[in-house]
Amino acid sequence: MAGAEWIREYPLLVTEQQGPSPAEQAPEPEEVGGVGLTYYLGRWGLAPLTRLVYRPRIEGRRNIPRRGPVILASNHLSFIDSFVIPMYAPRPVYFLAKSSYFEGKGFSGWVSRTFFTAIGATSVRRGAGQAALDALDQQRRILASGRAVALYPEGTRSLDGRLYKGRTGVAFLALETGAKVVPVGLVGTNEAMPVTAKWPRTKPRVTIRYGEPIDLSHHGPASSGRARRLATDEIMAAIHELSGQELAGTYNEAPAQNPVERIKQVLPHERR
Length: 272
Description:
By secondary structure, the chain is an alpha/beta fold. The protein has a domain at 54-94 and 135-250 and 259-265. It has helices at 3-13, 37-54, 81-87, 106-118, 130-144, 169-177, 189-192, 225-243, 259-266; strands spanning 57-59, 70-74, 93-98, 121-124, 148-151, 180-187, 207-210. Strands 1-7-6-2-5-3-4 form a seven-stranded mixed β-sheet, sandwiched between helices. Helix 4 links the parallel strand 3 and strand 4 (121-124). Helix 1 crosses helix 5, helix 5 (130-144) packs parallel to helix 6 and helix 6 packs across helix 8. The protein is globular. The two termini are 19 Å apart. The model is unreliable at 10-30 (pLDDT under 50). One of its GO terms (molecular function) is 1-acylglycerol-3-phosphate O-acyltransferase activity. Keywords: Acyltransferase, Transferase. Residues 70-189 form the Phospholipid/glycerol acyltransferase domain. InterPro entries: Plipid/glycerol_acylTrfase.
């Protein structure tokens, strides 16, 4: 399915409020470029250094396919999750980072932009509606090019350490693109770098567990809400087995700001 057509169709496949009309949509985003020399210099220089200082436990690296589209679906506990997942993977892994990291001015802005670009991050604007569709389409294009992406089915960090219900966007991408899903269980990253910390701590040791690849195609097509929900539940069950977290049994959502948002959260709808 072509990119522009795919953006138009996706809102019709879920039960949430539809995005803007085709006439209101932004032009097709540019193709995602590959990682540069800085990425490899940082990877082969920084990864051994962090292994020496932080002594992470890394399990299951061989479970990540070396070629083809792959989604690394992980629990999300800390800011450093987006660094430790790709840093110790056997192949470049892309992840989305908020656009403000790429839009800074002056020397500090250049440093931030260069760093995040070098480690395989691509810029995305957070939000609902068109911003959410653009982010989903950007991930689809990365997978269509045969690359690996890291995503968080919970949607955002767990501040209490529990594992929340997964949103169906990851499953949709896997079913739409045929990508295998490698579940990832992170243990201790929230203690190594809590929300209020500026730098990671050397204790406790962080554990990164890469699980066996999951083929979700048996659940059905991406157009099926039941298939997306069952596939998401299978991904979250695998993550739970690796992380050992307490299950929250609900979605990780920000408190509703008004009566309309409260009603939307109560009514059945698919969280993408």
